[in-house]
């Protein structure tokens, strides 16, 4: 199996109130009320047509602050080590981030968002709708996350945000 | 706003029974029973540690057959045109695919999967767990998808698969 290069381009920038990495919530579920916006490159505005009808969207983005890859990590929610692919930690072989955020509205090339768990200035790669038809999965097993009680998850998941 | 290049590497290959594009279901929800597997590059196997505890995983991959970008498209489910970011069509500015598949088991560098809606031979970019804590969203609006009844969606979503 040969590995090969894949080249993408940033299509916009994600802006948020999170300017310090350790104060940034780790997931949208721990970022309720954290507003932000996407500034899309103007040449792609036509691609936003009809997107405002969706309440939730996927943002796929580049973890631009990551400098090294770790295959074993301790996730923010737990002090145990796990394989990087069993976590959402940023130090992945390809540092790709994925968040489902709430879409509040669109003005021109600006998408207004809630539940933003993304560092200010993050380069955006793609936007997709998140929908009841496609994205409600019958999740049966949650691996190591089932060992983390909800109160601990809420506290650790928010990191230093709101302190 | 400056656009800039982002360089990734394939970390594995997705194998499936779907060898013809127009016979490939458009989403995992229309690919129930479609088995497949990921062949991960052996150097990343350590990163799979504890992943087998999760029933569902995100695969992020490269639509390697896409040759052009379209900002307005007719999605498979409907004959109306919509902005590319309001659909999951492959001809995106960055041709990045996203599927939540069921993880049946892991042997070495092979991940056995169900609900695979991905063309055989597709280059893999990332794997993340899909979990009850992070990924059950309170989706309120489904845009144009609400205009498509479930029977039509099932028929069109499977495309020519199972005919």
Description:
The structure is a homodimer of 163-residue chains. Chain A is mainly beta and 163 residues long. The first copy, chain A, has a single domain, classed as YaeB-like (Elongation Factor Tu (Ef-tu), domain 3, Beta Barrel), CATH 2.40.30. Chain A has a 6-stranded antiparallel barrel. The longest helix of chain A is centred in the C-terminal third of the chain and has 9 residues. The first copy, chain A, starts with a strand and ends in a 5-residue tail after the last helix. At the A-B interface, strand 1, strand 4, strand 6, strand 7 and strand 9 of A face strand 1, strand 4, strand 6, strand 7 and strand 9 of B.
Ordered list of secondary-structure elements with their pairings:
The structure is a homodimer of 163-residue chains.
Chain A: E1 5-9, E2 12-16, E3 36-40, E4 56-62, E5 72-73, E6 82-83, E7 96-107, E8 110-114, E9 122-129, H1 132-135, H2 150-158
Antiparallel strand pairs in A: 2-3, 2-9, 3-8, 4-7, 4-9, 5-6, 7-8
Largest interface: A-B, 74 and 74 residues
The average pLDDT of chain A is: 93
- Determine the CATH superfamily of chain A: YaeB-like
Low-confidence stretches of chain A: none
What does the main sheet of chain A amount to? 6 strands, antiparallel, barrel
Overall geometric form of chain A: globular
User: How many domains make up the 3D coordinates of chain A?
Assistant: 1
Write out the strand line-up for the largest beta sheet of chain A, numbering strands in chain order: 2-3-8-7-4-9
Class computed from helices, strands and strand pairing of chain A: mainly beta
């Amino acid at each position: 199996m040969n590995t090969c290069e894949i080249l993408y381009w940033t299509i916009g920038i994600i802006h948020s109130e999170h300017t310090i990495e350790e104060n940034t919530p780790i997931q949208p579920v721990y970022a309720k009320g954290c507003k932000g916006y996407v500034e899309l490159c103007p040449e792609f505005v036509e691609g936003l047509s009809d997107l405002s009808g969706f309440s939730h969207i996927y943002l796929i983005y580049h973890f631009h602050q990551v400098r090294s890859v770790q295959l074993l990590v301790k996730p923010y929610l737990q002090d145990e080590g796990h394989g990087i692919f069993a976590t959402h930690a940023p130090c992945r072989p390809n540092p790709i981030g994925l968040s489902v955020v709430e879409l509040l509205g669109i003005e021109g090339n600006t998408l207004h968002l809630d539940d933003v768990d993304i560092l200010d200035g993050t380069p955006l790669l793609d936007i997709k709708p998140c929908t009841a038809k496609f994205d409600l999965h019958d999740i049966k097993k949650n691996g190591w996350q089932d060992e983390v009680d909800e109160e601990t998850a809420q506290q650790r998941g928010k990191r230093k945000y709101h302190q």
